């Protein structure tokens, strides 16, 4: 088995011709979020990946094997829920609200300007539909947002200045409703959507 213990984010610094010739591995998010796993590349070689703990591998990253060979990572299509706003009964801001509520539940989310993606979860799908969002099942690559302080996928590598001074208000302080708490009355709407959420 060949060992790979170096990762080049998005193949940074490599010539296009080297990337084109590189073997590939197609991996779903469940595998790519692990720092240690075994896989088989497109040339049929068994590869043991040993990266620093906490390292997530992204589609487009390049693994460097102990013999110097390159293995380009492809994000494999996998079951996901694609969440979009309902243009008939909502606004694009509904996606921001959904991302906030999903983030409170520590759900990995892929953020796009016009949609969100999460791994399948019927409870979350029902919650999102109750917020008048459109939720559809799909088979697509999944690249959830990295942590705010993550070394790969989440940061820029530069500072934006000092931390804010003074009290920081919780987002629900403005709405008057604590996250995850029931309001004690029904928030269902009587209008029909005319389409499947």
UniProtKB/TrEMBL annotation:
Chief location category: cytoplasm
Pfam families linked: UreE_C (PF05194), UreE_N (PF02814)
Domain UreE urease accessory N-terminal: 7-71
Biased composition (Gly residues): 147-156
Protein's cellular compartments: Cytoplasm
Region called Disordered, residue ranges: 145-197
The organism's place on the tree of life at top rank: Bacteria
Basic and acidic residues bias (residue ranges): 183-197
General function of this protein: Involved in urease metallocenter assembly. Binds nickel. Probably functions as a nickel donor during metallocenter assembly.
Family the entry assigns: Belongs to the UreE family.
Record's protein name: Urease accessory protein UreE
Phylogenetic placement of the source organism: Bacteria, Pseudomonadati, Pseudomonadota, Betaproteobacteria, Burkholderiales
């Amino acid at each position: 088995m060949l060992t790979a213990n170096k990762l080049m984010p998005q193949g940074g610094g490599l010539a296009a011709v080297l990337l084109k010739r590189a073997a590939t591995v197609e991996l779903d998010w469940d595998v790519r979020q692990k720092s240690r796993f075994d896989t088989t590349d497109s040339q049929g070689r068994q590869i043991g990946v040993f990266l620093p703990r906490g390292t997530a591998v992204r589609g487009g990253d390049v693994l460097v094997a102990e013999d110097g060979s390159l293995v380009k990572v492809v994000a494999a299509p996998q079951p996901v829920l694609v969440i979009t706003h309902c243009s008939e009964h909502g606004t694009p801001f509904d996606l921001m609200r959904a991302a906030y509520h999903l983030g409170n539940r520590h759900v990995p989310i892929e953020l796009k300007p016009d949609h969100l993606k999460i791994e399948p979860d019927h409870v979350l799908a029902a919650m999102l539909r109750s917020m008048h969002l459109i939720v559809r099942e799909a088979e697509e690559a999944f690249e959830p947002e990295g942590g705010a302080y993550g070394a790969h996928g989440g940061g820029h590598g530069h500072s934006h200045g000092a931390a804010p001074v003074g009290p920081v208000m919780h987002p629900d302080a403005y709405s008057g409703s604590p996250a995850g708490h029931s309001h004690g009355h029904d928030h269902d709407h009587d209008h029909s959507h005319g389409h499947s959420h």
